[in-house]
Structure formats: C-alpha cells, structure tokens
C-alpha cells in the first residue's frame, strides 16, 4: 500500500510540475492580445512609457496608433494595416509599436485634437514628430485605408530622420 501511494503521489507531482512548466513557457511569449488585430507578428509594447523606454534603448522610432473598438474608421484602417505585408514587416523590424484605446497624458500626442484613428511617430530622442502627418489638413494624423502607401512613406520618413538627425 505504501508503494502504491508513493507512486500515485509522484505521478501527481509529475503531472503538476509539467503543467506548471507549460504555464511558465506560455508566460514567456508576450500575449498577442496587445495586437488588438493590428498585427499578431508584431511585438507590441503595453504602455506609452514602455514605448518611450524601448525607443530610446533600441534607437528605433515609436509608432503610436490611437484607435477605438467601436470606431468604423479605425476598424477599416486596422484591416488595411494588418493585411499590408510591407507595413507589417516594417512595424515588426524597424519600429517600437504601440496601439492605444485610451488617451495618454502626453499632450504632444494630440497636437490637433483627440480623434481616432491617428498615428504619430516619436523618435528615439523622444521627440514627437509633428512634421510627419497624413493627408488631411483637418485631422493631421489620421489615415484612411487607401492611405496605406502614404503611411508607408511616412514610416520610411521616420526611419530616415533617425539616420540624418541623431
């Protein structure tokens, strides 16, 4: 009987520890809920503060996407953004990426109002690039699905500015 219960106990311990190991392994991968549909292959930072820190540390520009779940313009832009391979690849490799569904306390991120969607770039010196704008004078940092090529140009511009200025 003693042998039997020891065996049962060790089997239980093995089961528990392997489940624990699996839970720990899962924990290491960043949860892709942070992508919120903007691109699951992209590593997203969770907060603006973390984004600034990573931008400075990695010498990559931070790209901040402000959006809301129930905004049809945001949904349309998100779909175009997620489906565009060039955008996804650049976002994945060359940028620190953040998408936010709430406003930050940094007023520099809303120079012309708190509308969505809006996309802004912050360079590694932590300067908000008010000079990288979209195509619309009434909402400088908004993009529509058909503006993805323009967004790609702005992403390239953000990368060029780092080379020339810093």
Structure description:
- It is a single chain.
- The chain is mainly alpha-helical and 166 residues long.
- It has a domain at 46-157: Glutaredoxin (3-Layer(aba) Sandwich), CATH 3.40.30.10.
- It has helices at 2-28, 48-58, 72-83, 85-94, 148-165; strands at 62-66, 96-100, 118-122.
- It has a 3-stranded mixed beta sheet with strand order 2-1-3.
- Helix 4 runs parallel beside helix 5 (148-165).
- The longest helix is centred in the first third of the chain and has 27 residues, at 2-28.
Key descriptive features of the protein:
166 residues, Glutaredoxin, 3 strands, 9% strand, elongated
Low-pLDDT ranges: none
Average predicted confidence as pLDDT: 88
CATH architecture field of the domain at 46-157 = 3-Layer(aba) Sandwich
Helix content: 40-55%
Give, in order, the helices and strands.
HHEHHEEH
Superfamily (CATH H level) name of the domain at 46-157: Glutaredoxin
Task: Give the overall shape.
Answer: elongated
Provide the spatial order of strands within the biggest beta sheet.
2-1-3
Given helix and strand content, the structural type is mainly alpha
Question: Please, how many helices?
Answer: 5
Radius of gyration: 21 Å
Largest sheet, if any?
3 strands, mixed
CATH class of the domain at 46-157: Alpha Beta
Under CATH, the topology of the domain at 46-157 is which? Answer: Glutaredoxin
Number of strands: 3
Cα(first) to Cα(last) distance is 74 Å
How much of the sequence lies in strands comes to 5-15%
């Amino acid at each position: 009987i003693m042998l039997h219960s020891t065996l049962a106990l060790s089997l239980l311990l093995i089961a528990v520890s392997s489940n624990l190991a699996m839970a720990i392994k899962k924990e290491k991968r960043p949860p892709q809920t942070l992508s919120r549909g903007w691109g699951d292959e992209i590593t997203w930072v969770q907060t603006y503060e973390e984004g600034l820190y990573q931008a400075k540390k990695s010498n990559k520009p931070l790209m901040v996407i402000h959006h809301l779940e129930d905004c049809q313009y945001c949904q349309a832009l998100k779909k175009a953004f997620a489906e565009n391979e060039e955008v996804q690849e650049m976002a994945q490799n060359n940028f620190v990426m953040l998408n936010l569904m709430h406003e930050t306390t940094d007023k520099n991120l809303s120079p012309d109002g708190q509308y969505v969607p809006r996309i802004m770039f912050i360079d590694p010196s932590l300067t908000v690039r008010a000079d990288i704008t979209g195509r619309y004078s009434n909402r400088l940092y908004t993009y529509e699905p058909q503006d993805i090529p323009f967004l790609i140009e702005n992403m390239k511009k953000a990368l060029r500015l780092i080379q020339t200025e810093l």
